[in-house]
């Protein structure tokens, strides 16, 4: 017995089902003739072999995916699949990589996005109403922030910290109103500011705006009770609406606007891959409808959809890489800017041409019919993408 590998007993028969062996794997049950009881270095060798094998498939998959429209799909239909990465795995990995790089590129483009200083967010550290020029503005900002605290209470429950924060906000509002009115004696800390008046001391005519909590849905308690939905789904919807209100209120506040927008972008990018996976089978249904007389199976259309989106994500990855490269290099070599822009436009044009050629080669129709169906599918897909993006934004707002 070799020191490098411990083989299973059984001679020329499978140790699992006793079938005669004709190679390294049993043709009856598929079990390998090699034992899993190996020295550590043997396991490392197997791991390296698996990695190199996967890398070999990647090298056979990525170039034709980018440069040969429809080639991978036709190969898959012909049964030649071992050399290539499976369509769903290919699309899945490229999708996650594209959104990950997109998030990094967006952070780079915005310079990391200036987040609000923590001292400005915590009530009591600085006057939250210092930039208000009228008592009406003070009252509006107070209503917004008190409503935001109330929504937080509904989400996390009662908290002494939240009660103290509300008292601090009311105290700061009273102090600011006293400054604007020229009064030397501000109202008590725990009391709400009096009816809002203008800086000249006259009462505001727009009394409805003084208390928006009475009419705006943002300031009302969220309660969902849909009879035909289970309780846990009602609670989940209610919690999502509360978070959506908190995010919207944060965007209306200048001090927390930047942070809220960054949070929305991060949550949207996190939700986009999920919406794309929902979109994929719907796109395959669209292909099935457009080519219903070709009598192809739904799985064939789904494979076309997977390879099409895998190419789009690969194209997007290259575009993001070019954009990031330009951000790094153009400040030091401005002559690279037109070249990078030209390459980016070339990727966009190639994406449109690629999808047309892929559709023509896979479904084998004439140029006129392919063009008509290509335009119809593209128009429908734009609407589908719009709904998917809207759903991702809503999901991002609800977290």
Topology:
Blueprint: H1 40-67, H2 71-77, H3 87-109, H4 118-121, H5 135-156, H6 160-181, H7 207-210, H8 231-252, H9 257-290, H10 298-329, H11 336-363, H12 367-397
Helix pairs in contact: 3-9, 3-10, 5-6, 5-8, 8-9, 8-12, 9-10, 9-12, 10-11, 11-12
Description:
The protein is mostly helical and 399 residues long. It folds into 3 domains: 38 residues, no CATH class; 210 residues, no CATH class; 138 residues, no CATH class. It is built from 12 helices and no strands. Helix 3 runs antiparallel to helix 9, helix 3 runs parallel beside helix 10 and helix 8 crosses helix 9. It is elongated, with a radius of gyration of 31 Å. The two termini are 60 Å apart. The N terminus is likely disordered.
How many separate structural domains? 3
Radius of gyration: 31 Å
- Tally the helices: what do you get? 12
Largest sheet, in brief, is: none
Order of helices and strands: HHHHHHHHHHHH
Low-confidence stretches are: 1-10, 112-125, 183-192, 194-215
Question: What proportion of the residues is helical, as a percent range?
Answer: 55-70%
* Strands, total number: 0
Whole-number average pLDDT? 74
Which band does the percent of strand residues land in?
Answer: under 5%
State the distance separating the first and last CA atoms: 60 Å
Strand-pairing-aware structural class: mainly alpha
- The geometry reads as elongated
Concise summary:
By secondary structure, the chain is mainly alpha-helical.
């Amino acid at each position: 017995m070799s020191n490098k590998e411990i083989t299973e007993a059984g001679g020329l028969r499978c140790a699992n089902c006793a079938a005669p062996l004709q190679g390294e794997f049993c043709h009856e049950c598929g079990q390998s003739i090699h034992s899993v009881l190996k020295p550590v270095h043997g396991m490392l060798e197997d791991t390296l072999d698996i990695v190199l094998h996967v890398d070999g498939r990647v090298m056979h998959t990525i170039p034709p995916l980018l440069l040969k429209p429809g080639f991978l799909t036709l190969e898959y239909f012909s049964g030649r699949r071992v050399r290539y990465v499976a369509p769903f795995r290919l699309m899945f990995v490229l999708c996650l990589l594209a959104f990950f790089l997109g998030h990094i590129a967006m952070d780079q483009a915005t310079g990391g996005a200036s987040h609000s200083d923590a001292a400005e967010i915590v009530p009591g550290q600085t006057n939250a109403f210092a930039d208000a020029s009228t008592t009406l503005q003070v009252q509006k900002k107070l209503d917004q922030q008190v409503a935001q605290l109330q929504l937080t209470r509904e989400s996390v429950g009662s908290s002494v910290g939240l009660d103290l924060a509300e008292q601090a906000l009311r105290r700061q509002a009273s102090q600011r109103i006293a400054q604007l009115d020229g009064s030397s004696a501000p109202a008590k800390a725990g009391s709400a500011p009096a009816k809002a008046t203008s800086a000249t001391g006259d009462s505001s005519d727009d009394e409805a705006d003084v208390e928006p909590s009475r009419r705006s849905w943002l300031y009302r308690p969220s309660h969902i009770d849909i009879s035909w939905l289970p309780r846990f789904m009602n609670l989940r919807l209610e919690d999502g609406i509360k978070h959506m209100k908190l995010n919207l209120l944060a965007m209306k506040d200048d001090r927390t606007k930047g942070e809220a927008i960054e949070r929305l972008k991060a949550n949207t990018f996190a939700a986009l891959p999920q919406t794309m996976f929902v979109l994929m089978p719907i796109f395959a249904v669209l292909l099935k409808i457009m080519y219903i007389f070709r009598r192809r199976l739904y799985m064939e259309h789904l494979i076309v959809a997977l390879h099409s989106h895998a190419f789009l994500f690969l194209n997007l990855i290259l575009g993001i890489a070019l954009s990031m490269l330009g951000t790094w290099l153009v400040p030091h070599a401005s002559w690279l800017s037109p070249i990078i822009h030209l390459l980016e436009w070339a990727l966009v044009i190639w994406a449109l041409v690629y999808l047309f050629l892929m559709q023509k080669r896979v479904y084998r129709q004439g140029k006129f019919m392919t063009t008509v169906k290509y335009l119809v599918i593209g128009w429908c897909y734009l609407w589908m993408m719009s709904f998917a993006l809207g759903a991702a934004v809503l999901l991002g707002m609800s977290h």
